[in-house]
Structure formats: C-alpha cells, structure tokens
C-alpha cells in the first residue's frame, strides 16, 4: 500500500518547514515566490491531496473557480485557449483550488450563466477570457462584488481591474523586424477587422515597426474574419496589387496558413499563436507564454481573495518568435 502523503512529506521534498507548506496552502502572500513555486511543484509531484472540507471551514471558501470554454472554431487557433485551460487547471490544483468549466454563446449568455452558477454553487471567483472594448461581463461581476481576473486587458480602462495579458503588439513587432532583417521591405499584414482589442494591438505592432524603419505600410493591410479561406483571400488580394508584398505578418496561424496557400511558397509568412499545426508544418509563429499567463491569473485571483493587493494589478507578458522555415 502506498505511503500517505502528508504536509510533512511535502515539506521534506521542498526542503522547507511544515509551517511554510501550510502558509502556501492557506496564506500564499506570506511566502516568497521562489519558495512558493518550489512547494507547489512538490505538491503536484507527490500528488498531495488537501482536506477540502477542513480547509473550507478554516477559510470560508469553496476553493472552486470557474472559467468559460471557448468555441473550437477551425480547430487551429482554438487550441490556444485549450493550452491556457490546462495551465490554469494545473496552477489552481497546485494552490489547492479546483476549476469548473462552463459554456456560453456570447457575453450576454455568459452573464446569465454567471447568475445561474452563483445561485447553484459556492464559487470563489472567475477567470474571464476574450476581453474586448466595454466588456459588460466585468461590470456585472464588479457590481456584485464577485472576485475575478481576466486573461486579456480591459481595453477602455487598463487599470479598472486586475488582468494578465500577452503583449500582442510586441509579438507582431518581433515578426516584422525578423522580416526586415532578412531583407523584406514590402511586408503585408493580414489581420481581423478593426475594432477588436487584440486584433488592433497586433496590427499596431506591425504598423509601428514598419514606420520605425522608414517603410510605408499604406495599402499593405487587409482584414477578415479568422480562418484559412479568409487568409488566402486577403493574401491573393494583396498579391495582385501593382507592388505586391514579399512577406506577410498574420494575426493568427489560421490566416497565415491561408496566406501560405495563396502565395504558393513565393513569399515569407509569419503567424501568431504557435499552434501545433504551425509547429508541424514549419510555420514561423509568435508564441504566447500560456502556462505562465495561467499561473499569474491564479496568483492574482487568490491574492484578491486573500485581500491583497487592495488595488488592481496588471501583468503584461512578452511573447517570443519561433523561427522556422517560412520566414
């Protein structure tokens, strides 16, 4: 029979005191980040199971958080949030929390779901994804005193609530600089229609970098709904202009795959999100630090549940460019 894993076992593995393990489980703000991470890794490795009933009596919490499952769309870029959810679930478990998943068709439907979930379950808080201008979900939760953090910025008022996000503009700036450094001067951008917070941010990084290198982006920008067919249509449109681009920066890997098809290997292409498809076909793409983003979301939400910090906290993470055969 396997030996029971206790707090003492975890403490020995992490080379800390039992009190430190207890603090990580119940008052993580008291523990230095490096030490807390070491204890969380020991908890995950050993499979330590917290007595949830006893902990709920001590803290007055259910240790239950909720997050929405996004539609799979074309099955390519939908994998991004799948990876985020895996990271979120792992980070929550390491901190002694569980994650409840729910679905919703749109923001209005999600608010109805909030109401039903809060009436049916003793939820401690929410992690929201897919933020946009004037996000009504955050106003609804804030007005009711429900704790939440978002993976994505409140684009209208950046300091209105706590959030974790990836610097989308920096990602497309890295992609554009890569193409400039390899000799390209006519660099097209294929993104989404204007008005999307994330999409506009990715477009801005390309545009700003072009101008910083004295390159004119005028006429090199196309926008469409996300998808391979849409990316191909935008690329064909740009390639038939009087001075066609020799390279494309795309707001997603789906759009980039379409651009690759339309260009037939004649132009360099860089995508965004570094999906498994991009890795499989050798597409150069911008990678988001999703496990870190998920862990920081959990950290922030637990901090707020513990009453610290009192104000809001904003975390902006840097993406990285994964260079492969297409650029």
TrEMBL record:
Protein name listed in UniProt: Transcriptional regulator, LacI family
Alphabetized Gene3D superfamilies for the sequence: 3.40.50.2300, lambda repressor-like DNA-binding domains (1.10.260.40)
PROSITE patterns, alphabetized: HTH_LACI_2 (PS50932)
Keyword Transcription recorded: yes
Ranges of residues in domain HTH lacI-type: 5-59
Molecular functions per Gene Ontology: DNA-binding transcription factor activity; transcription cis-regulatory region binding
Pfam families found in the cross-reference section: LacI, Peripla_BP_3
């Amino acid at each position: 029979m396997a030996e029971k894993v206790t707090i003492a076992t975890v403490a020995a593995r992490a080379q800390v005191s039992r009190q430190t393990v207890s603090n990580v489980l119940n008052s993580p703000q008291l523990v230095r980040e490096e030490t807390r991470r070491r204890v969380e890794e020991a908890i995950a490795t050993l499979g330590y199971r917290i007595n949830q009933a006893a902990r709920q009596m001590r803290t007055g919490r259910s240790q239950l958080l909720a997050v929405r499952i996004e539609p799979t769309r074309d099955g390519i870029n939908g994998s991004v949030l799948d990876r985020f959810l895996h990271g979120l679930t792992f980070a929550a478990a390491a901190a002694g929390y569980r994650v409840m998943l729910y679905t919703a068709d749109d923001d209005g439907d999600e608010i109805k779901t909030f109401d039903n979930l809060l009436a049916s379950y003793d939820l401690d808080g929410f992690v929201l994804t897919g933020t946009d201008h004037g996000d009504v979900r955050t106003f609804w939760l804030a007005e009711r005193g429900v704790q939440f953090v978002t993976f994505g910025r409140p684009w209208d008022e950046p300091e209105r609530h706590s959030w974790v996000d990836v610097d989308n503009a920096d990602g497309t700036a890295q992609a554009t600089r890569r193409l400039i450094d390899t000799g390209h001067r006519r660099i097209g951008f294929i993104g989404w229609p204007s008005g999307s917070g994330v999409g506009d941010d990715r477009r801005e990084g390309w545009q700003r970098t072009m101008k910083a290198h004295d390159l004119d982006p005028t006429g090199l920008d196309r926008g469409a709904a996300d998808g391979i067919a849409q990316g191909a249509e935008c690329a064909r449109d740009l390639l038939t202009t009087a001075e066609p681009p020799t390279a494309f920066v795309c707001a997603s890997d789906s759009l980039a795959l379409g651009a690759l098809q339309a260009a037939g290997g004649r132009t360099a292409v860089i995508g965004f999100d570094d999906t498994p498809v991009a890795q499989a076909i050798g597409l150069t793409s911008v990678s988001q630090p999703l496990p870190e983003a998920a862990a920081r979301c959990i950290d922030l939400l637990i901090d707020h549940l513990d009453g610290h910090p009192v104000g809001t906290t904003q975390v902006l993470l840097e993406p990285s460019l994964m260079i492969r055969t297409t650029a």
